Records
---
Amino acid sequence: MLLAMKLKAALAVAALASPLAMTAVTPRDTAPPERALTALKAENFPYRLAGDFSRDGKPVAAPLRQMRLGSSLGIMTRQVTAAEYARCVADGGCPRIPQASGAEDMPMVGVSWRDATAYARWMTRTTGKLHRLPSDEEWVFAAAEKASDDALPLAGAADPVAAWIARYDAEASRERPAVLTPQPIGAFGRNERGLQDVAGNVWEWTDTCFVRHDVEPSGAVRVTNTNCGVRVVQGAHRAYMTDFIRDPRSGGCAAGVPPANLGFRLVVEQERWPELRRMAERIADKMLRSL
């Protein structure tokens, strides 16, 4: 009797936890542009870990891992435009900041991580669906062939000074974007997953914090410091920016060529309460294990 009751309860919770099918999201003709999403099914992909890595006090290259997202991903097909951000400002949800253009077809640039997060929160309140910045892993997955594998050379890694100079030279020699001024949406084409303007001349904020790691002899990676005042930005190459910086050329970036412009696109959860679903999944799993 007790076993049957547990089984019924677990099945009920599991039904609640069942995620919505992530099929392609096709906006209606009357839907506002910001609702244009690309739905990506989870699959394996190569990912070079973000942050700084060292072994025995000496810098080493970041490990390359095969990863898979925990679930499918719904992400904006294009970057947030200046006109869309202006609507958030007008509604009191976002800080008013200088912007390059109010045109519908221009990406919003000159935004900090804090500005982008404010817009995501406003969109969540406005639509009832969770909007958030992608993690670095999600961005790399969505960027596909446009993602840069920034395994910078660490020649002379036995000498920390020589290693730092080698990394500085490699970062400083990165190719600068041919065009620095933000271009209309679609100017840089689509990647193989259907996203527009990935790795063009607008770098995109992620929600990933800057982390330092120690690589142990076994190959295991141990976090030694997490700094969420600095976030990962992604574009033609990965960079790390202080969260309040709006103009990357004014500072707040690691050594080397800074991003040309700072903008963003958002991940959109298809459920109103994704955390409730995940909690329900964990409860169901524990109940099933106890049967």
---
Amino acid sequence: MKVPGEFEGIERVHLMGIGGAGMSALALLLAGKGFAVEGCDLARSEYTVKIENLGIDCVVGHSPLHIEKFSPQLVVYSSAVDSNHEELLAARRRGIRTAGRGLALSWLFNASQGIGVAGTHGKTTTSSMVGLILESAGYAPTLAIGAEVCDIGVNARVGKSDFFVAEIDESDGSFEFFKPAVTAITNVDWDHVNYFHTREDVVSAFIRFAGARKPDTPLVVCAEDAGAQSLIGELKNDPKLVTCGWGKSWNWGAYDVARKEGGGVVFSVACNGETLGKMELTISGDHNVMNALVACATASSVGIPFETAAKTLREFRGARRRLEKLGERDRVQVIDDYAHHPTEITASLSAMRDAYPGRRLVAIFQPHRYTRTSAFYREIASALEAADIALLLPIYAAGESSQEITSEDIFNIMHADGHRSIFCSDENDALARLDSLLGKDDVLITLGAGNVSQLGEAYLKRVSQLPQKCSLDYNATEFEELEERVSELEDKAPRV
């Protein structure tokens, strides 16, 4: 299998943070291309379980000793790992090359016919849609998606063609390493405030990303937010610009939208003012109408007709944690969603109102990162007021140091507005309240990018308390010594 030039001479790759969605996807791609791959993370996850089942070794904890143990020729680290972590420093001292996840993924992507899907919101769903449309059209693409695609059961795989569909993450600026042959942008909103200090910083970064694509290649942009409109204003003279939005005034437009009770939506699609036909989705929400429109425009740019795209998306089941139906208990429908930004919260709750009209909506929200919560806590409070009852969990730090902001600040705003909200001390407190709060025909939705999804699963399984958290002070030397001692005891044990 052809290996990109940046990987020339490399046989073994070590991944730090392998348990995350993006890093586990990279692990699958590298293994699929014939590299020897292993990695480490602070804890096991659903992703490590899946890749371990495929023969990829995953070690718990980070340690400089991993460099000696595995002898990699390249060490790739996630954005959650400090670039000067002692394990990385140990690799550099030995002359071993290191690279961030985004850079390493771009080496694979840029050597292919890359179709890159970027945007502050919706890129996981849209890239999943694009990948499946290409698959249905017989293009057999390589995929790298930020979450498991329900229709294929994985978040990454190596295809047989030169097409490479990737969700490209802007959160740490690494998306500027990518040079797509087709570029799709779902929206341009302000987020990741620890990296982008202003809305203008985000727009400028997307302008650079759009300008870095391969020469004379398509640029598909959904124009239904202020940031994307600023982007289009800067790129309006680009002859390859394709715009998407509501109505027939865009290159690709959606109109005559009918929302289906129980979930799903039907709408008409126009291209350059001419109606192409109806599209039906099983997933809900106006935001997913726009995602589907971008996917159709992107597929069209490589020659796939609308009819093929519409047929594929009619059966599309979505991605994990994107308005995912977990099940039903005592006529309570349980939904899980990744929404952690006010724009996403608003879109998800609106979609549930359309799908379940007249039913009471109970939301459990877990804020994600202190920096994001500090920047948007007022907007988060406003967005959550679309639920009938909102339960608030403590902030999921995602590696950030604690700040003065807390979930109680969101609660206080909602309480002052007269909205029914409940501050929960932890996940078990929230779980304990559900039986008395929920009634028949209610809809329970868990929202957030942390571990909030476990509450919906626990409620469905009638679990009264989540497993107690434990905090281990990981000592790499003691761990290695313990492994050696276990091996010695196994060697001395009598054989039966």
---
Amino acid sequence: MNAKRIPVSDPHASYLSYKNEIDAAIHKVLDSGWYILGEVTREFESNFADYIGVKHCVGVNSGTDAISLALRALDIGAGDEVITVSLTAVATVAAIDLVGATPVLCDIDPDTRYMDASKVQGLISEKTKAILPVHLYGHPADLPALQAIAKKHNLFLIEDCAQAHGAQIDGKMIGSFGDLACFSFYPTKNLGAFGDGGAVCTNNDALADRLRWLREYGWKERYISYYKGMNTRLDEMQAAILNVKLKHLEHDTQKRIAIAQTYQQTLAGLDLKLPSTKPGYRHVYHLYVVEANHREGLQTYLRDNGIATAIHYPQAVHQQPAYSQKIKGFHDLPVTNSLVPKILSLPMYPELSKDKQEHVIEMIRRFYSN
């Protein structure tokens, strides 16, 4: 097999799976003559809100914008602190920094890799305004515990759902627990557009109105800015694509779960730590991330045998030069620090065929048999 024949993710395969539907939806938008915040975007917002089980969905330009807009809607900014995690896409912390607030980093659970709720209490100060957990790799954060902490201390709970469309706790969708929930529709996501896109979901009518004003210059009426807003709109083309793909999301989620189960069964017993799922939680496997003591050797061996892997992420946020001086709490992150040198993402996408799965598994087993 040629190198990179099996990618880590494959948004093009997603397009080919639903090509006729997607092409028809795109042409309908092109023929309509309306390309920004029109009927198609409103349709997607309604459909996605129904899917998550909330009253409102507000489409925006990206997942990063979704978080920063959520923070602005809650009047969180300079002088405020937001508790989040360091093992995440840098966008989580970048969005907090963009509004002028201070990220306070909490360590994670070593098995589920979500925010360790038992460590949150010690990070709360008089400046704390919100807790922002990340549903990392597709596993829900410990939302019941975090909800209780937020309620006790009168804090906002904002979910970073960028990697976990369709994840659930006891049958309830993530994105429906927090005051606000932020999604990304980057092409590789479980629900991915073919460009940038994002959304904020909420059950709060007033916050939904404010989000809609803030995403378009603070306009309550056209050209009249009542707030200092921004330009972060989900365009009609991406909304049309997302409307098509949303119909197939559950089917694709079941494929991801089946691939993960195959990995779990066939890679057990090797010198790898496989992902775990908390009982009652539905992991939707945006990424299938193992922990390997000999990561570089395994990654090289797989690459040489036609299998791409990735590291999510090669540096935690507190280790990155741009943010190391702007955050609090990073002196006590032993679990995060121990995971970063070991994590490795294996190929995971709904169109990953049985023969490609078998090739990935065979090569990993060969590496550990040498």
---
Amino acid sequence: MTTTFGQKSTTDEVLAGHDLTGKRVLVTGVSAGLGVETARALAAHGASVVGAARDLDKARAATAGIPNLELVQLDLADLASVRAAADALVKDGRKFDLVIANAGVMACPMGHTKDGFETQFGTNHLGHFVFVNRIAGLIKDNGGRLVNLSSAGHRFADVDLDDPNFEHTPYSEFVAYGRSKTANILFAVEFDRRHKARGVRATAVHPGGIQTELGRHMTPEMMQAMMDNVAKSLPAGASFDWKTIPQGAATSVWAGVVAPAEAVGGHYCEDCHVAEVVEGGPDLMIRGGVRAYALDADRAKALWAKSEALVRETF
């Protein structure tokens, strides 16, 4: 009998009956929110977890009590840190069954990473692009997976390959966030294409609306404007309910462990299922599904090439 999971499913419900003993998983962003819950749930079901975080003291406090967990320092906004973390893992040599690129920032003021990239694109996409590609050989053949956390926020904007750092475009917190979240999906699409011949698949997921530290840069006015947009996009009489953190992390573990690899590879998932493709351009009124531009194979290849040029590294 096949169990159907949905919007309200939790991590433990999704993983019920799955023994992950002997599995090794890497999760970025384990100092708060979804990253901590993802690590907890996987470890509770037997997996050995490597948690990556910028602030190790914060991560240690947040993950205290999680068994089979080791921590590594990783600042996605600093490519020297990214490369050092990846190189240490490669030197260690132990393989991963699953990598979950969970860390990220959202709707922050205009700023730049240590390497000069716009903060959200540089952290959410380029940091993970370099880190994951440098450890790609550690993802096990014939069953390994990559899960990139994206967002319904990808509907705010497609990537801008001509002006990724807003040098010629007026900065908008949510446009920048949308660009980075679209990039997370496109990265999964191209990574999947490049690695599926060796049995490694990649997917992107939307965790849902959850109140975590991700929204720490949002003012009350920004939060209200976002909620007003959400309310306008709902069917008449419907209301928006925040997910709990265990519900928000459920799609990550579902896509990484439970769903058939061939079903999720190269796709975008939400509420523990593969999302419907919605044609058209950026649209704040679209709630469910994935915009077609975020799964465009040619766009994914172009972003990969642009990303290599920006970070001055070829994968």
